[in-house]
Amino acid sequence: MLAHKAEDEGIICVENIATGRKPHIDYNCVPNVIYTHPEVAWIGKSEEQLKQEGVKYRIGKFPMSA
Q1: Is 65 contained in some domain?
Q2: Pairwise CA distance, residues 16 & 8, whole Å
Q3: Which stretches are transmembrane (predicted)?
Q4: How many domains are there within the chain?
Q5: How far apart are CA 59 and CA 57, in angstroms?
Q6: Pair 32, 63: CB distance under 8 Å
């Protein structure tokens, strides 16, 4: 998943060099992965961030044991 972030940052760097504009990258849209078994992935804000901002959200749970 780091390759996706690096690719976006490379594009932003080239745009900045070529045009002088400083584009913005939204790191909330970059996927995150923990390489365990099973793998865990997420995208967006954490539950703590949503609570702090007063945003309504739903929690989904899945039992990972056999």
Answers
A1: no
A2: 12
A3: none
A4: 1
A5: 7
A6: no
